[in-house]
User: Which sequence fits this backbone?
């Protein structure tokens, strides 16, 4: 079936959205997973139509949840067409950050890293412990086992601070949030005001924020962006918002409790970074945050605590 026929069928099905406007400026993109993405104009507005093998409903519901917290394209509808599924959304405006990185000076690149980290932290913080639609899978896999096994292996090699953490039996915080899955510069659109939209929610699941954070750090680092700045900005925003948002909640950790949590969170994110690097057949080295003065200070704050186990 021709591209125009596919689009016309879906427009006809959603006549209340489009009225009698005609379709113009069609372009097509085929993804590595053989999904088709159509970009088209209808009337004065631009749209994206994704024809998928599966999971259109999941991606639609992910986007409807995410738009409550950060800027995402407006998801309009989903359904079936022949043997496939489709997802219809408005087309977000802006250029992807990766295309523009080479045009940024050092200050602008640092500003982009900080801003991106705050957006990811807000997404994670805002979606912790909320009602989860059944169509969005939980994808923690064997996260805790994988991270702890890697922690042990690295501890034997006496990486900076890791053997200390292993000796203190750190545990991953029991958290599940909406994880983007591909929070990379290619999926962050920029306009004159900064990051205007986060796109490509196909890989999103309910998962540990550590998976999202670690993989994001890996990609930012591979592009020559400051992974340490990203992590510092993320942790500051992530835990500051938790404190602010839950002051009346008896179960919330006080600032004194949260400070000892940071190096655990930091280290596990670094280890996910390490695991992801191995899976991607790229250099899996731990980024330099594990050797930073800030990290040493945080380790000291843990050692001063009466017991960390009870606070996790």
Assistant:
């Amino acid at each position: 079936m021709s591209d125009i026929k596919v689009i016309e069928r879906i427009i006809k099905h959603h006549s209340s959205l489009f009225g009698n406007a005609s379709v113009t400026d069609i372009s097509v993109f085929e993804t590595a997973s053989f999904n088709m993405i159509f970009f088209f104009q209808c009337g004065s507005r631009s749209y994206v139509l994704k024809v998928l093998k599966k999971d259109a409903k999941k991606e639609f519901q992910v986007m409807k949840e995410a738009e409550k917290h950060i800027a995402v394209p407006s998801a309009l509808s989903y359904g079936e067409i022949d043997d496939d599924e489709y997802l219809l959304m408005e087309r977000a405006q802006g250029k992807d950050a990766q295309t523009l990185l080479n045009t940024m000076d050092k200050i602008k690149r640092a500003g982009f890293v900080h801003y991106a980290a705050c957006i990811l932290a807000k997404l994670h913080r805002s979606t912790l412990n909320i009602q989860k639609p059944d169509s969005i899978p939980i994808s923690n896999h064997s996260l805790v086992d994988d991270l702890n096994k890697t922690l042990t292996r690295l501890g034997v090699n006496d990486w900076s601070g890791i053997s200390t953490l292993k000796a203190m039996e750190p545990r991953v915080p029991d958290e599940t949030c909406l994880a983007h899955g591909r929070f990379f510069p290619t999926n962050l659109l920029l306009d004159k005001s900064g990051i205007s939209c986060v796109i490509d929610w196909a890989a999103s699941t309910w998962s540990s924020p550590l998976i999202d954070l670690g993989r994001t750090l890996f990609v930012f680092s591979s592009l020559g962006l400051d992974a340490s700045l990203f992590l510092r900005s993320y942790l500051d925003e992530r835990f500051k918002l938790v404190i602010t948002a839950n002051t009346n909640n008896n179960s919330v950790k006080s600032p004194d409790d949260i400070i000892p949590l940071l190096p655990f969170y930091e280290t596990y994110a670094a280890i996910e970074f390490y695991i992801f690097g191995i899976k991607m057949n790229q250099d899996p080295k731990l980024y330099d945050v594990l050797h930073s003065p800030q990290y040493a200070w945080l380790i000291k704050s843990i050692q001063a605590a009466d017991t960390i186990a009870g606070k996790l």
In short: The chain has eleven helices and ten strands.
